[in-house]
Structure formats: C-alpha cells, structure tokens
Amino acid sequence: MNEVLKFLKTLVKHDDTVVVAVSGGPDSMALLNLLIKLRTNVPIHIVCAHVHHNIRKESDKEKEFVETYCKNNDVKFEFLKIEKYHNQENFHQEARAIRYHFFEQIVNKYHAQYLMTAHHGDDLIETILMRLVRGSSLRGYSGFPKISFMGNYHLVRPLITVTRNEINEYLEINKIPYVLDASNQKDQYTRNRYRKYVVPQLKKENNHVNEKFLKFSEMILQSYEYINSVVKEKQGRVFDDNFINIEQWKKENSFLQRQIIQYVLTFIYKDNLDMINDRHVQNIQKFLLTANSNSYLTLPCSIVLTKEYDRALFEKKKNYNSYHYILEDCILLPNGYSVEKVTEEESDNNFVCRLDISQIQLPIIIRTKRNGDRMNIKGLNGAKKISDIFTDEKIPKNQREIWPIVTDSSGKVLWLPGLKKSQFDRTKNGKYDIILKYSLKKEVFHE
Hints:
With 447 residues, the protein is of the alpha+beta class. It has helices at residues 2-11, 26-39, 59-72, 91-110, 121-134, 138-141, 164-173, 190-205, 209-238, 246-250, 254-269, 278-290, 386-392, 397-400; strands at 17-21, 45-52, 76-81, 114-116, 147-149, 154-156, 239-240, 243-245, 296-299, 303-308, 311-316, 324-326, 330-332, 337-342, 352-355, 365-367, 374-376, 383-385, 405-407, 413-416, 420-421, 434-440. The protein contains 14 helices and 22 strands. Among the domains are: 2-120 and 157-205, HUPs (Rossmann fold); 324-440, Phenylalanyl-tRNA Synthetase, Chain B, domain 3 (3-Layer(bba) Sandwich), CATH 3.50.40.10. It starts with a helix and ends in a 7-residue tail after the last strand. The longest helix has 30 residues, at 209-238. 40% of the residues lie in helices and 20% in strands. The strands form five sheets. A six-stranded mixed β-sheet has the order 3-2-1-4-6-5, with helices on both faces. The protein is elongated and about 95 Å long.
C-alpha cells in the first residue's frame, strides 16, 4: 500500500480535486483513507461520491456510515439514491451506468481532475477471466487500465497493483472501519464464484499471480492500441454516422474486418461494452458478408443492425406504431411529412395525386402498410405488391414501417406518396375533384 501512496503523490498535484467512489466496503474505505493521508502532504480537495442502490435494507445504514466518516475527516459528501430500475433482468448493468453517470456529474460539479475507484488486482483477475470464458473483444480481454483519460478528467484505479489480502491487512493495521455487503458471498452472481473458487486456486499456483495478470492486461492493451491505430486509418473509409460501408469493409482481410467491427462496437456501446462478446462480432461479420438487403440483426441493449443494400446501419430498436387516419384537410405523419388537400398545384410528380370522387369511395384513408397490400400502378397492367415497390425503390426497411399508404374507404390503394401513383390518379387536364399533396413539414408528429 506504500507503493500506492507513492504513486498518488506523483500523480496528484497541489490544489487538485479528487472525486472518489466509496461504497463503504473494505476496498473503497482503504482508498478513501489513502487519499486522506495524501492530503497531509499534498493539499488536495476530496469529494466522496456514494450511491445508495436501494436493493438491500442495509443500504440506509451504509449511507449514514460513509457520510459520518466523511464528516469526521473533513471530506465533502455527495450521494445518489437509485429510486427505480427499469431493467430488472440486468439491473447490475443498469446500476453501473447510473453510478458512472452520477460520478461524472460530481466530477463536473467540482471541476475535478480525477475520479478514483477502488478496483484492485483481484478485481482485474476476475474481470479478465470472466471475459475470457464468455468471450470478448481484444480491448475487453485487457480488463481495465490503471488510468483512463475521459476527456476532461482522468479515471484512476490506484489499487490495481495490490491484492484483496493486502487491502485487508492495511485496514486492520490502520484500524479503518468498513461495512460488508452480504450479497458478495452469494454464488448466484458470476463474479462471486470466480472470487470464491477460481482466484484462490490461481493464488495457490502463484502467490503473485495478480502481477502476471496486470502484465497480461498491459500487454493486451498495448497490442490493442497499436492495432486500433491501424484500424482507425481504415475505419474512416468504412464507418461514418453509424453506417458501415459494406463494400469498403469487404476489401479488408478477415482479421481487420473483425477488428473494424470491434472498433465500431466500442463506439456504439461505450460503457456497455461488457454486453458484447466475440460471438456478436462473428455474427456481425457473417451478417455483412451473407445477409440479403433489408435484413436485420438484433444485438444487445436494443441495438439493431440493418443491411440497406451496400451499407449497414446501427440504431436503437424502434417500436413503430401503425396508424390509420381519416383525411379531412391535413394529416401530419410520424415521418415529418404531411398529406393535405390543396386547391391548386402546378406539379404533376409523385408528390401530388389528383382524384375523381366518382371513381372512389370516400372518406380517404391514410395508414401504414398491411400484409397483402397491392396497387395498380398508373400506366402498367395488373397490380403490384406494395412490398415489391418498396424493394424496387430501395426504401430502407425501417422507413417502410411508417411509409404512408393512401386508400379509399373500400381499401383500394390510391397512392403511394412520393413513390408511385395508381390508375386512379388523374392528369392535370383531366377530370378531378381532389388534389392531394405530400410534403415535408418542420413540425414532427409524436404520439
């Protein structure tokens, strides 16, 4: 632990502000105490950030314990209580995202130079082993670095070089109080099983195994950074604005194809990178090489990869709602366009439709597509499926879900706005009673 204190003395400067994440457990209390010791030699500002996870009944007492310790040691105390989880199946991942968002808020509030967490050498071993077993990216296999630059501050893990046993010895010698979370002993959690059964066996083989894993982590991270510099040069031609240019991507060899995918996933998933493993990378590679246009691949965290001809788009899965409107004067649609009745219009393109009410049944309906929709295209014999028209016009699959279909009350398709007219459309010089116009509006309809 003396080496940790020496490291902190070389890192933190006079008058710096450090935000430290403190749960009240042994590791975080040891780190908080080290920073308080550091303060006697290097005048710094310490801010404790505590998260009340609202899962265990002991959490209230733990919050009071940490707050009291901070008050007695002249440390600013900030805390967040998580009132509700939206994803009960994976609340650990959600809680982590909430924690780090809170930590960043506190960093910004105090203009801190550092955010410090109490991840130690045993945590690193557990993380690497878990990712090796479940599969991950090259970056993921490195575990986590000692220092990460986050844009306007540094995320630092000072205890990464020490073991859990060394921390416990430090707590005992210095008589530092802490609380224990009983859930850390439950075998239902994967990390607990590695902590209780796997890591102790490795330590029997080599008492300094944490140092070996740290070197492994640093080596993998250095390899990743080199490969990433090569991939960065490539990805500028391959990936932009959440789109992969499939033809450019196919020009690379198989290894670089996978590395480019991993690089893109790092950008897409950011703090949720643990949700991705090598199976996802393989699936994406296969999807880009073999899937038909307008196919899609569902990924973790409600991300969908949609193949649109020569490109593929990463986006959040959207729950498209069908709609069914009766047209009176004007309907504002979910895609930002409107269909409206106008009295005059010079254009005669696919954004305008003229109708003779003697040939249709009122009222006019505007709705989303249905299975089996067909339209008799103007100038052609016979009916064509709406889905085939979308394919011919290369309309992306997500846009097809909300593209307006104009019908009469009997269900006859009169117009596919912006794409095709039906045999019911009249020319400018013909007989018609209604003019419909499809145009982009500045307002956007929301349910």
